[in-house]
C-alpha cells in the first residue's frame, strides 16, 4: 500500500469508533488498515483531540488481527494537550508493537498543534522506552504534516528506545524554550538504545522566534543515541546553542543544511559520526565542533552570506581535543580567514587525516608538521623518519621497524605502526601491514596484498609470514562481444600476474566464494542474471602448475532473465600464475558486461 493510498480501505467501511478493540472482520488481518481520525472521535475544532487519537492507537495495537495501521489526519488543525504515544514493545517474546503510520494530507495542509501552558508536556508525538527495557521496536512512520509545539510541548517528536522509525515530509516548529529541540533520538539503559531511525528527506525543523534569538530553542535535532541513525535532506533553522547535536556516534548526517545559530553541528560524544555534504550557513561561533574520535567530515560547506564573518566566529571546523582516527577532507570554508578555517585546541593526533580543505593552515597531507600538528615517534627506534615518501602520499604513523615501512607509493596512505604502502594509491592501516599493488588496501595486523591490484585484505596476526592467515576481497570483470569463453580479470585488464587472484608460491589454500553477475548492454532491454559458487583451491611449493581445485563444486544460478541464464560460467585452477580462473561463455555476440567478486579465506 502506498502512503497516501487511503482508498484501499475506505473510511466509510470502518465503524464509527473502536469498541473494546473489536474490529470489523471485513478489513482486519489484511495488511495495512487506514483510519481517519475524524471517524474515531477527533473533532479538529481546536479542542483536545489527543484522547481520541490515543484511544485509537491503543485499540489498534491490542488487536491481534491488525498487522499494521495508517492513522490519517486530514487537512486542518488538530489540537493535542498531551503526548500521542506510539506503541512500544513490552516483551521480546510475547508482544511486539504494531507498526503505526501517522500521516497527514501534506506539510502545508495538516497541522498537529500543542495546546496548554508553556513547556507543560514532553512531546507532541513520542515513543517511550518499554518497561522492562527490552530490545526490539516497531518501524513507525510520521509524515506529510506540520507539527507545531507552540512553545507548549518541549519537543515535536521524542524517540526513546525506538527502532527504525521514519520521519519525512514534515515541518517541525516552535519547541519550548530551554534545553529542548524539535526532534530528539535517545535511549535508556546500557544495551537498549535507539537505533536505525531515519529523519528525512523533506524535513524542516525551526526553533521559532523569527529574528529574536531569545525565542529560539536550544537545538533543532538531537541524536543522543548511537547506532546507524540516518539524517538526510533535513533543514535546521534557528537554534540558540546548536542546530544539530550528535552525542551518540556512529550516525550518518548527509545533505543536512543548518542556518541561524551559534554552532551548527556539534559532535559531543566520545565516538564520532559521518558528516557528508552538509552545509553550515552563517554560523556565529562554529560550523562544526568535534569532541570525539572516529569522525569523518567529507565534502561539507561552511560559509557566511555576503562573506560577513561575525566577530565572535571561532572556526569553520573546531577540534576540541586531539581526536583520533578521523578524516577531515574536501571541506570548503571560503569566507573565513585561513587561521579560522580549521582550528585545533590542541595538537592534531597522528591518527587523524586533515587534508584537501582549501586554504586551511592545518593539512597533514602536504605538511605533516603543520599548524597544531605533530607526528610522534618512539624514542627507541633506530629508523625514525624512514625512506622517502611518494608524491602526494600521506604518512601518519607513529613508528616503524625498518626504513621501508612508509607510504612510498604515489598518492599512497599509511596510518598506525610499521605499515608499508609501496604502490600507487595503495593504503595500509593498522600494524605491520603491506600493500604493494595498485589501489590495494591492507588493514588489521600482518596483512599482505601479495602484489594483486585492487585487492583488499585484512588480518589479525600471522603464523609465520605476513598474509598467511587473512581474508581477501577481489573484483574481476570482462566485456564480451562474442560467444567465446572469456576469463574475467581485475579491472578487465587482461590475464597478468597482478590482475588475477593467485595463490602464493608456498603450500597454501584459499576458500573462495564467487558471485558472478552479467548484463546485456546492446541489442536488448538489459537482460541480466547471477550465479554463485564456493570452492577450495590448493597450491604447493613446487610452482604455479601445482594448483588444483578440490572436489567438484558447481555453480548455482540465481535470479535472472531467460537469455542471460543461458550463459555458462566456469571455475578453474589456472596453472599459468597458479590462480583462480573465473570464466564465462556468453549467450550471444552482443555486448555483455560481466563482474564477479571473489571473497577468499587465505591460509598459507
Characterise this structure.
This protein has three domains: 11-281, Pectate Lyase C-like, CATH 2.160.20; 394-467; 470-603, Immunoglobulin-like (Sandwich), CATH 2.60.40. Helix content is 3%, strand content 39%. The protein has a 27-stranded parallel β-sheet that branches. Strand 39 (528-539) and strand 40 form a beta hairpin.
Please summarize what this structure is.
By secondary structure, the chain is mostly beta strands. The strands form 4 sheets. The chain has a 27-stranded parallel beta sheet that branches.
- The domain tally reads 3
Radius of gyration computed on alpha carbons: 29 Å
Question: In what range is the share of β-strand residues?
Answer: 35-45%
By secondary-structure content and strand pairing, the structural class works out as mainly beta
**Low-confidence segments:** 1-30, 91-95, 367-384
The separation of the N and C termini measures 54 Å
Biggest beta sheet attributes: 27 strands, parallel
Would you report the number of β strands? Answer: 44
**Tally of helical runs:** 2
Question: Helical amount among residues, as a percent range?
Answer: under 10%
Question: Can you give the mean pLDDT?
Answer: 86
Q: Please tell me the CATH architecture of the largest domain by its name.
A: 3 Solenoid
CATH class of the largest domain: Mainly Beta
| CATH fold type of the largest domain | Pectate Lyase C-like
How would you sum up the global shape? globular
